[in-house]
Structure to design on (490 residues):
């Protein structure tokens, strides 16, 4: 006699007894420690499900949360049309994002409006990666020329400075407007920083009194000033904006999206990725790669065929994205009940009720052993190279999301990272020299090594001590590195 089908169950685990405010502080301090501690507690009480990556229940500000760290579940939620139609990004981000990035925009739009908007913006952005390559290279060379060869610098801060130059150089400046663009850039950067602090403030109330403004109030005021500044530049025919000369480009639509594209969140995401790629290219614990004593940068340059060099670099970029996504994850809110299939007969499916929030934790999902094998936690330069395992499987990281609402800027961001790398390595045509980063891998804190995939089984408390994860991932303390270059003077 066949057994009766088992009904799906709610996400496992009970909300902690901490107050909602304490839970919020805990998550804000370290999402990795917050989530991992709950996963470990669940595994301890359910040893038979320890390797299943089943959804875990949490509670923040009295909201029920389903934490997703399974790669296949992320794919189900974001790629399955029926399930995706039961989720809302707009509702999930209504308090966090909408006041600071007013809709309509790609970030907050849901289907079907999202798809038509994205198609329009994909067409506008199609040629941008190729068009911007010379500008990116020029900005990178200028940035490193301004650093004395042999001097020591904080890598993340240097990459953040470079990222501001790149983002504003791509979207807001042109050679003929350079002086005005530099003045506007300083103002845009300051206002975007105020906006971000207001957005992620743990005091989510807007208060304006004569002698004091809450961070949220300052952030909202910054958003209004930014909108005014961006619209003024568009109305004045800003030649540096790649969208102003396109026929049919609506001014409000372009201004709304420029607010997103030039946001401090976008800049810090790029800085996070550049920090990780530079460390992965030039520095390894004990000076070793999994395959030998050469750094990945040396191994790239040791290849005689240009295509092989580019393929290995691309593999390293993809592996960096997989292990060290700048943004730890995204949120969705269920507008209908959602059932996630376990894919295993011994494990019941999971139902996430209407009105729950879903946190898709990309850091955990992209290290899923069932997808990436025993080396899922470790950095492997060749993982996506040539015919090696996983190169053509489509099983890549989640740094830019996946499915219809994946990040519009994925192609441009990859082009920026690749051009920064090839410029530093001296791989570009008409090379002006090389840039090298020097540091002792043993001096890199354990939590940072866990972020990079250099060390497995890093404890949650070590990750929390050494890494900031909101709004983007970056080291808590400055990583001091020596920059050595032989760039010719311009």
């Amino acid at each position: 006699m066949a057994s009766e089908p088992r009904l799906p169950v709610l996400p496992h685990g009970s909300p902690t007894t901490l107050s909602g405010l304490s839970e919020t502080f805990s998550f804000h301090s370290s999402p990795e420690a917050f989530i991992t501690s709950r996963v470990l507690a669940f595994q301890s009480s359910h040893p038979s499900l320890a390797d299943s990556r089943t959804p875990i229940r949490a509670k923040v500000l009295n909201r029920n949360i389903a934490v997703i760290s399974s790669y296949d579940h992320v794919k189900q939620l974001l790629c399955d049309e029926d399930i995706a139609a039961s989720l809302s990004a707009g509702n999930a981000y209504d308090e966090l994002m909408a006041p600071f990035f007013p809709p309509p925009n790609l970030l907050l739009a849901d289907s079907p409006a999202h798809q038509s908007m994205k198609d329009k913006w994909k067409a506008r952005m199609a040629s941008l990666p190729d068009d911007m390559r010379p500008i990116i290279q020029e900005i990178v060379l200028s940035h490193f020329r301004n650093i004395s060869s042999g001097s020591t610098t904080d890598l993340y801060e240097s990459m953040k400075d470079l990222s501001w130059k790149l983002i504003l150089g791509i979207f807001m400046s042109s050679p003929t407007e350079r002086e005005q663009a530099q003045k506007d850039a300083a103002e845009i950067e300051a206002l975007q920083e105020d906006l971000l602090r207001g957005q992620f403030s743990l005091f989510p109330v807007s208060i304006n009194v004569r002698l004091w403004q809450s961070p949220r109030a300052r952030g909202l005021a910054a958003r209004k000033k930014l909108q005014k500044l961006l619209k003024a530049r568009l109305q004045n025919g800003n030649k540096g904006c790649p969208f102003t000369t396109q026929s049919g480009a609506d001014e409000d639509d372009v201004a709304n999206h420029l607010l997103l594209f030039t946001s401090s969140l976008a800049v810090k995401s790029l800085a996070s990725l550049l920090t990780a790629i530079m460390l992965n290219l030039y520095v390894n614990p004990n000076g070793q790669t999994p395959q030998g004593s050469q750094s990945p940068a040396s191994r790239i340059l040791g290849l005689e065929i240009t295509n092989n060099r580019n393929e290995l670099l691309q593999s390293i970029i993809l592996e960096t994205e997989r292990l060290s996504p700048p943004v730890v994850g995204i949120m969705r809110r269920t507008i209908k009940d959602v059932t996630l299939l376990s894919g295993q007969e011994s494990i019941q499916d999971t139902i996430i009720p209407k009105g729950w929030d879903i946190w898709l934790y990309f850091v955990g999902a992209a290290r899923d052993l069932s997808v990436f094998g025993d080396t899922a936690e470790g950095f492997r330069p060749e993982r996506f190279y040539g015919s090696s395992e996983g190169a053509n499987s489509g099983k890549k990281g989640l740094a830019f999301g996946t499915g219809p609402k994946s990040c519009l800027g994925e192609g441009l961001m990859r082009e920026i990272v690749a051009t920064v790398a090839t410029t530093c390595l001296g791989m570009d045509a008409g090379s002006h020299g090389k840039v090298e980063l020097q540091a002792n891998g043993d001096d890199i804190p354990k939590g940072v090594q866990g972020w990079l995939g250099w060390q497995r089984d890093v404890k949650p408390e070590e990750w929390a001590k050494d890494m900031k994860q909101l709004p983007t991932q970056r080291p808590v303390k400055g990583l001091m590195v020596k920059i050595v270059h032989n760039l010719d003077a311009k």
Summary: The chain has 19 helices and 14 strands.
